[in-house]
Here is the input.
Amino acid sequence: MFFFGDSKPKLSLLLEIQSSLVRGTLALYEDGRLKEVLYSLDIDIPYIPHATSAYYVKTALRNLTEAIETALKHLHLISEARPELRIPKRPDDVHFVMSSPWIISQPRNVVVPFGRKTAITEDRIKKILDEERMKMDFGQKLKVETIEEKIFEVRLNGYAIGDWHGKESDSLEVSYALSAGSSDTIDKLRDIAIHSTGTRKVLFHSALILHYMRLRNLPLTPHSYALIYIHGEQTDVMIVERQLCSFFGSFPVGVNSVIRRITAAAHIDRRSAESLLALHIGEHIDKEHDKTTDALMATASLYWRDGLRKILGPTDPESRMPDNVFMASGTHDEFFTRSLLSFKSDCRLLPLPARAENAYAQAINNAPR
Here is the structure.
């Protein structure tokens, strides 16, 4: 039997770590393209009031080990059931996809005047970024490790240049984003991945930047927009202006936070709170209880909007939000859509083009290695 194509299929294990869950995903690539997401599993990180960061790190690491082991068991089963896919026996690489509070991302722009014609090489840009990294202060007491640097645009003599390798210029401007996390946690994640999978190719990514990279490659994406990514205990926000990342921020209110706010105010359990929220959004509550529920939901919405307002700044935060907004929350999308429109009524909400694990798998395949 003969197979035609660039190479044999490649298998990646994607490990997404959010504020309240770990997700393990197996992605199969063929001829340089994503062929199929073979498997995905979510494992919750239970919320405990007043728990220390040590609890969340320990729980995330335990869940991560379980996610990897379960994914590899399913890999064996899928390979036996679908031999025509020629799935590798183990992952070729492992990609961690990180959200807050596990990482911090910052947009950066560095301008270097040379004073004379100077050849622009990868080594020269790397040296400049290394020097910039040494100057950065993430405001963290813990030792921090840079996990990712993504260059978005290179300008020579003020002009954006796609193929800049080897060209000469009097000045250089680089727009990029840098992501960093706790060195101790990153080391533990890397060790678990290597020990569990046998591969030593382990890479780390910002979830927001992967979404940005995916959107940047789509023809209808606006040049300026916001991306709001709401997960269990956090909301992450990125603002893009003229196709370049200009702002990253996050605040500690997510889907689970809002649900807990409703359960506390209404004195009900989580399941009842989620049902109440769904009934309210669907306008299925009788008039006798509607006013009480309206007030409850308005308070929960304000709780989320206050967090958004604080990270965008004290002076007219609504105007800082672009007109076009991509937003994803996984659950209770309509509640957060209404909340955002209460924050800025004239914004245009756009759907993200793929499920998170599919978007990450596609963006990772196009990312520089």
About this structure: Residues 18 and 99 are 5 Å apart (CA to CA). The first strand starts at residue 10 and ends at 17. The two ends are 32 Å apart (CA to CA).
